[in-house]
Write a structure and sequence with these properties.
The complex is a heterodimer of chains A (473) and B (430). By secondary structure, chain A is an alpha+beta fold. Chain A contains ten helices and 25 strands. In chain A, the strands form four sheets. In chain A, strands 9, 16, 17, 18, 19, 20, 21, 22 and 25 form a nine-stranded mixed beta sheet that branches. In chain A, strands 1, 2, 3, 4, 5, 6, 7 and 8 form an eight-stranded mixed beta sheet that branches. The mean pLDDT of chain A is 97. In chain B, strands 7, 8, 9, 10, 11, 12, 13, 14, 15, 16, 17, 18 and 19 form a 13-stranded mixed beta sheet that branches. In chain B, strands 3-2-1-4-5-6 form a six-stranded antiparallel beta sheet. Chain B has two domains: 197 residues, PmbA/TldD fold (2-Layer Sandwich), CATH 3.30.2290; 221 residues, no CATH class. With 430 residues, chain B is an alpha+beta fold. Classes of the chains: A alpha+beta (473), B alpha+beta (430). Chains A and B meet through strand 1, strand 2, strand 3, strand 4 and helix 2 of A and strand 1, strand 2, strand 3, helix 2 and helix 3 of B.
């Protein structure tokens, strides 16, 4: 049980100290993880982070304080120390006034269904499950090194602000990760696999974790040692949902974060091309990209954000045009609009900032077979390993892991080190077709300083790009 | 001390334990466009507890200091359920010596004034805007072990970085120190602003092989990665190109890289590791040769060697990485290059393959094309694509000057690095 009373005390006390807007979030995050390195169990880890984060505006400056000592004395001191800190800052500079967007005052409770509660799960479940996953890979002679990890977490939150909004939340999540290395003659292949969602431990079954991992292992052992380079040049390229997802996340999701556009993340994740481009056209009319935290059992699931605003789906790009940005109450307030509930905080000790949830390319009308038929001779890149993008989110690279030539409309030999290296506007201008499928991958998205890793899904259908320039590693 | 309470709760139920109490005071000031976007004051008191019984082990982080009994009971339950295997060895009775490199308290007002003045200085150089952060920490550590070790020490860390923007250019500056005396945001901000102004109107260059000078921020990325890949755990699970390379030359003889448990301005300094082992100074690359992996007690046992005091209960990690300065000065390095690029910073380094060391990283902030030994013009929109073994073997010159680097996302373990000249790296353009 969270100490809800201390959250109310924090808001009342801070308001009395002169904070104009104030919110408090009592939050507990419990993590259990068990890794197996080359089959040997590592030390099991259990971490509990329980405390209160208080955020408020004083003398026109946003301030944040946190403590894990949940006594009235300690919380009062945290608020007083913060006030003193903000007074020192205010004495040095004149800041523009912060205007938070007007939002509904509400009381809400939300949770995620779990057949087995996190609290009822003991460590031996993690160990047993991790070993069963390790069994899939341990007898594969080509796979020489492996790291298997199973992690479960429970997040409990109680949010209250000076306007009277109250939100209670309970989110269990599970994540399976594997890092495997296969050798065959002079070829060494490496692959990261991440499968995760919110819900009880049964979410791993719902996500077909065992089946997916088996397929990954099978693919790896099939292609290692048999991958050849291709000639660099322009190709018609089909990419799998995993590649579609990272493209959407990196080149659309991040640059659509309104705080980046304003420059607030300029020294960290950077700014955004949306500061500079003259037109609101991002890509072809096939470019439809959304962010939706309300997808049941998703890894980036939430129904109310960390500012107590009700979550909803956001269509970021619709038919190639910019439709909506990701906002919190501060960036929405500046524009005189409502927040679309994109504020998230990784734990009690950090401020809520604008984040993605589940970002994906919307599915289309094609089948994968129709795409193959259309391509005739080209490339199919189903997954990736190396990737990066510049801090304005234009110049990006994705290096294929599982990739094949398409010859006479059939998937043929595996290829190695094929690189998509292009700019955002060029990439999406070449999007020609989307398949009917919609698949997601789990990831931990990083942003902010202090660094805040938050769970997200990235996803999409199979995408067909026409005339994409490919390089080779 | 709450560590003492936990000790009393577990001492009769386990064979070995190491408890570290961390009492952290943190100040943060973030700014952009000349405005403070948020100021934070955080306080956290938490415990890290490693315990073993027979051949079983558990590690727990406890922040709920009001219900220590429940937390300890829970850890003991996990200990019962875990599988038998190799267990860490808590270090026997030791004497620890804390180097006097920290302040007694965080000097917040003085640090804040330095930070605010530095932003003003940057604007005076004609830039368009800035963004950055100052993070100040005071951490009181208290170690208690089943082997009778008890050690208290206090560390202060001052970390500041800034980006300045001008036109299509930008520059980066970083100040890292363990004492307010050497904390110098002014130098960092001036460098960021000067680079921003000089790179205001970058041009494109064509993709190809170039000789490059890597400034301390990007060189630190490289050496941090190399140091992490010296971790025995990284080598065992596939996160390193250094498998079976101990004793081999992996770089020219001029290159020396050392990990320091404690060093002035190394903001990750501590006199003991998570197993209670005294931290030490470990040569990783000596005269170009990979001489030692870094270990905790479990990896050391597996490798038939001794711990280097780098636990991490699962993964041994470097503390503070120092790359020894060479003989060159920067002007000499530039003169040496017929056609190349001077790179000031990077970001977003990702591997295609850790075993082969193939990676790429985005060149961020100012970079300058060099022609016939002279800086010609700023360049943008490039990516460095190489492999670590090739890059290390292609280091041709090392500067005398070295500098501490630690900043968000890219250089997490503090690294003191020189400028290095690398032959024939690939720069790509989209």
């Amino acid at each position: 049980m969270l100490d809800e009373e201390i959250a109310h005390f924090a808001v009342q006390y801070s308001s009395k100290l002169g904070f104009k807007y104030c919110e408090a979030r009592v939050q507990q995050d419990i993590y259990i993880s068990q890794s197996l390195n080359n089959g040997a169990p590592d030390v099991p880890l259990k971490s509990e982070f329980y405390g209160i984060g208080i955020r408020g505006i004083y003398k026109g400056i946003m301030g944040f304080a946190s403590t894990n000592i949940l006594t009235k004395e300690s919380v009062s001191k945290a608020a007083e120390d913060l006030k003193r800190t903000l007074e020192s800052v205010a004495a040095t500079r004149k800041n523009e006034k912060i205007k938070m967007s007007e939002e509904d005052v509400l009381t809400a409770n939300w949770t995620v269904d779990e057949r087995t509660r996190f609290e009822d799960l003991s460590l031996d479940w993690f160990l047993k499950e991790a070993k069963e996953l390790d069994d899939i890979v341990k007898s594969e002679t080509k796979i020489k090194q492996r790291l298997i990890k199973l992690k479960g977490s429970l997040q409990l939150k109680y949010f209250v602000n000076s306007e009277g909004t109250i939100v209670r939340a309970r989110i269990p999540r599970y994540l399976f990760t594997a890092f495997i290395t296969a050798y065959e003659s002079s070829d060494i292949a490496q692959r990261f696999i991440e499968i995760g969602g919110s819900g009880g431990p049964e979410v791993l079954d719902r996500l077909n974790t065992f089946e997916k991992f088996k397929n990954e292992v099978k693919t790896m052992t099939k292609i290692v040692g048999k991958r050849n380079a291709i000639k660099e040049g322009a190709y018609d390229v089909i990419v799998g949902p995993e590649v579609a997802g990272i493209m959407a996340h990196e080149s659309i999701g991040h640059p659509f974060e309104a705080d980046r556009i304003r420059g607030r993340e300029g020294a960290q994740g950077g700014e955004s091309y949306l500061r500079d481009i003259k037109s609101n056209k991002i890509g072809s009319s096939e470019t439809n990209i959304s962010d939706d935290p309300t997808i049941p059992f998703s890894y980036g699931y939430f129904l109310f954000d960390e500012e107590g605003v009700k979550a909803r789906k956001k269509e970021l790009v619709k038919e190639g045009l910019v439709k909506e940005l990701l906002h919190n109450r501060e960036t929405a307030g500046e524009l005189g609009i409502k927040s679309n509930a994109s504020a998230r905080a990784a734990n009690y000790s950090v401020e809520p900032i604008i984040r993605m949830s589940n970002t994906y390319v919307e599915p289309g009308e094609w089948t994968f077979e129709e795409m193959l038929k259309d391509v005739k001779n080209g490339l199919f890149i189903n997954s990736f390993m190396e990737w990066n993008i510049d801090d304005r989110r234009l110049n990006q690279r994705y290096v294929g892991f599982e990739a094949y030539k398409i010859t006479n409309s059939e998937i043929s030999e595996p290829v190695k080190g094929v690189i998509i290296e292009t700019t955002t506007l060029n990439l999406w201008s070449k999007l020609y077709a989307r398949s009917k499928e919609l698949e997601f991958s789990a990831a931990t998205c990083g942003k902010g300083d202090p660094e805040q890793g938050v769970p997200v899904w990235t996803g999409g259908p199979y995408l067909l790009f026409k005339g994409l320039n490919l390089k080779v590693r | 001390m709450i560590a003492d309470k936990v000790k009393n709760l577990i001492k009769n139920s386990v064979d070995q334990f190491s408890i570290i109490e961390n009492d952290v005071d943190e100040y943060i000031v973030r700014f952009y466009n000349g405005q403070v976007s948020i100021a934070a004051k955080n306080k956290v008191l938490y415990l890290q507890m490693l315990a073993t019984k027979g051949k079983k082990k558990v590690f727990k982080v406890i922040t709920d200091v009001n219900s220590l009994e429940n937390s300890v009971e829970d850890a003991l339950k996990i200990l019962e359920l875990t599988e038998e295997g190799e267990v860490p060895e808590i270090y026997p009775k030791a004497s620890y010596s804390s180097k006097e490199i920290s302040d007694k308290e965080i000097e917040f007002e003085e640090a804040l004034n330095k930070v605010i003045n530095s932003i003003e200085q940057a604007y005076e150089l004609g830039i368009d805007r800035t963004a950055g952060i100052a993070k100040l920490y005071k951490t009181k550590f208290y170690l208690l072990t089943s082997t009778g070790n008890e050690k208290e020490e206090t560390r202060t860390d001052y970390i500041y970085y800034i980006r300045a923007f001008k036109g299509n250019g930008s520059g980066f500056g970083n100040s890292v120190s363990t004492s307010i005396k050497r904390f110098d945001p002014s130098v960092a901000a001036t460098e960021a602003a000067e680079y921003a102004v000089k790179s205001e109107a970058p041009k494109h260059i064509s993709e190809g092989k170039y000789n490059v000078i890597l400034s301390p921020p990007i060189a630190s990325t490289i050496f941090e990665l190399v140091a992490e890949m010296c971790s025995a755990y990284s080598i065992d699970v596939g996160f390193s190109f250094l498998k079976d390379k101990i004793g081999e030359f992996i770089a020219p003889k001029e290159l020396n890289v050392t990990d320091y448990g404690q060093i002035e301005d190394g903001v990750n300094s501590r006199s003991f590791d998570d197993e209670g082992t005294p931290t030490s100074t470990t040569k990783l690359i000596e005269s170009g040769r990979f001489v030692s992996a870094i270990h905790n007690s479990i990896t050391a046992k597996k490798w038939g060697t001794k711990t280097t005091g780098n636990a991490g209960v699962i993964e041994p990690s470097p503390w503070n990485v120092v790359v020894e300065g060479g003989n060159a000065d920067i002007d000499e390095m530039i003169k040496e290059i017929k056609e190349g690029v001077f790179i000031t910073n990077n970001w977003y380094t990702r591997f295609n393959n850790y075993r082969t060391g193939e990676f790429s990283t985005i060149i961020r902030d100012a970079a300058f094309y060099i022609k016939n030994g002279e800086i010609s013009h700023p360049v943008a929109n490039i990516r460095l694509s190489d492999s670590l073994p090739r890059l290390l073997n292609s280091i041709k010159m090392i500067s005398q000057n070295t500098r501490w680097i630690k900043w968000w996302g890219e250089v997490v373990t503090p690294v003191k690095s020189p400028y290095i000249l690398v032959d024939g790296t690939t720069l790509t353009v989209p």
